Amino acid sequence: KTSENLNETTQNAKNLSPLEQANAEKLAKLESEKLESEKEFTRLKEQEQARKAALKKKLEHERGNAGNIESQTKIEVGEDIPTQTQAQLPKSRVRLNEREIYDLDYAIVKAKDLKPSFTTGGTQKRTDMNEEQIKSIAENFDPKKIFGSGGFEDLPIILHDGQVIAGNHRIQGMLNFTPKSRFAYERAIKEYYHIDLKPDELLVRKPNKRLNNTEINNLAASSNQGRFNSESDHAIAVLSHYEAKLKELDQKLNADSIYSLKNIVAKNLNFDKATHPNVGDSNLALLMFNMPRTKTQGI
């Protein structure tokens, strides 16, 4: 039957006049081009949808923690890594504000046990990786830029499971040490702290006491204050910094101008009792605090 249909079609084509045959071929070509065009349109549409979905996922990932109250972000803490606490060294200290001050112990750890991260979630609150900073530490280590800096800028701070609270870039740079930088690092550790490190060891700081979820989040976010790679980093950090006071802020504030209102907000959130409250950061924190959020994450 199929053979008969084919013969019939061939016969019909032969029966067409040259003009009719040309028109038929032209029509067939147009139909083919139309089909190809529709296929290409569908392909481009699917490609664009995939691009938008990927972009949306990326933005949700980057801004997810900023869209939630920072201290409520769940931190998954794993098993403790082996550490050698250096009890002979005076404790270090970081201060979030007048109410939150944390003592830190110096500890020797195996470099392989550390877990630096450059995606938001967990203890990482920054959204961008500064490759130049990592390269600079790895290839041209300068101990004066880290040792003795105090606060969050000093030796990296880790959780007991090896996650990095402060100093992801520093840790990654140290993991990538060239022989020259590793030599400079070990010599500086010996000079500053009178400690002889093995080739696979690093000196870090860790909280003297176990921290709860809120404390870990606040420490991680506050460690980035003043040094942001993006606006979302900034927003995440200031939200954490002012969160406690934001919960106490009156629902209604009276002011005769926007300028006055911004200053009232800054004054009310000024738990550090600074002479000149940070108007910009305090109002950004208020904005982030009141942004609509999904049940999971994202602004």
From TrEMBL:
Region (Disordered): 1-21, 52-83
Sequence ranges of Basic and acidic residues compositional bias: 52-64
Highest taxon, organism lineage: Bacteria
Residue stretches in coiled coil: none
InterPro entries reported for this sequence: DdrB_dom
Any Pfam family hit: ddrB-ParB
Start-end of Polar residues biased regions: 1-20
DdrB-like domain segment(s): 98-207
UniProt name for this protein: DdrB-like domain-containing protein
Organism: Helicobacter pylori (Campylobacter pylori)
